[in-house]
Predict the 3D structure of the following.
Amino acid sequence: MPRIVIPDDEPAVMLPSMAYGKLAGHDVRTYADRPSGPDDLAGRVRDAEIVINIRSTSRFTADVLEKCPQLRLISIWGTGTDNVDLAAAKARGVRVTNTPGVSAIAVAEHTVALIMAVAKQLVQVDQQVRKGRWPRAMVTQLRGKTLGLIGTGAIGREVAKLGTGLGMRVIAWTFHPRGDTAEWVAFDEAFRQSDVLSVHVRQSPETTRLIRREHFALMKPDAIFINTARGGIVNESDLLDALETHRIAGAGLDVFENEPLRTGSRFSSLPNVVLTPHAAGITPEATEAGLALAIDNVLSFLAGQPMNVVA
């Protein structure tokens, strides 16, 4: 029976889930803490044919894959694949699957929550009221404003629907535009025209540091930047400079280049930023659906049936 290893269920989501019962009768080993580094990760999965990857901090580099000669499948819980060397996996005959779309609604709702929080200055106003003040800030009204999307996958499409529901004009840039999700524009035009610019592409070699200083320079001074995709898509120091110099009005961020966000990060002292801990897709509904699909990918692999294959 093929060994299945879950090397990084911390904090625990897989073990307490209803989906975990689908693995009954299989040879499964689950670790309740995260690997301390690449050698520890390789040691945990060395004898496995199948890995269910829970945390993006477990990085399946070419070196780790080389130390796991029996590995045949990495089933990722989540959409992002930036923690796996896809070329090295393909070269070694390791299939990689993910769970697209299961958290689209949750992440889209979180995106709109960040837009609202920044536009309405909710965090700053809340803090002032708690201190006995009664502020009268002139905050942004969203109806009639332009929402720009970078990427229109499952999450981007849901954000487009919610933006339309708020009465916003929705424009978008994506690698392969099709359909009527939004008004399609050039990459630079998305930054130039948007009152709110929200990122929804997957991190890959093509998109790493895709958004840089020159793009923030195109934005309106009262524009808001939102990222619920991956921190590495943005040159973080360029974003910090744009916020600190008030080149843009504010940002709502769920993702960062280095996670968890380091103590003393420059973001922490900025009053025009709302920060959340890479938690946009964490709802009971999205978590259960994602874990179930990650397991279904494993069961389909074992049965020789179609999977959500990335590589």
